[in-house]
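Batch manifest, entry 17 of 40.
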Amino acid sequence: MPTALPTLQASLPPEERPRERLLRHGPTVLTDAELLAVLLRTGTHGCNALELGRRLLARFGGLRGLFGASRDELRGMPGLGEVKAAQLQAILELARRELAEEIHRGDALSRPDHVRRYCAATLAHRRIECCMALYLDARNCLITSEILSQGTLSQATIYPREIVRAALRHHAASVILAHNHPSGNAEPSQADEHLTRHVRAALALVDVRLLDHIIVAGGQTTSLAERGVM
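Output type: structure tokens
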């Protein structure tokens, strides 16, 4: 009969078990590794779920790298199979969808923090530069969002005409543009500013407003509207 994998319950005293600590004190007191352990539930032979959580964070450089990892990268880690890799990717998608719901429900301009968090949840973990657009209705509620382009480590090609075409297809009244800087530097470049003005002018021709262009770099976001570029 095969030996069972070590569980967190069997390998740690009750007062140190993340699940019990979460039930007693709430999730905010747990470390990232402990929260992962609650999700993973089991580890591998000689490595409980808490230690597996620590190894995952170390291997991928933290939560952002972990949630940005591909399924093949996750499955390549000892202790992670198809099911656990899918669970980790599902957590990030649920968080992203919760933020999208908030933007769907109300005026995006009155909730800039939700917009930034949504853009960060979608783009921050990506290892190549990607650009997305949020299409809003006349009440500034989110209609939909789309990834426009994916490029190299440092450059994505964005065509303003494609943004205009999509805005018309979605009957959008306004657009928020966002892209990531894999380098980790959230400062806008001259090219970013030039693109912003170009897209704004192209959208204005069809009576659609460009409300903002958000740059995402790691846990940081920069608004070009707040910088006065708009």
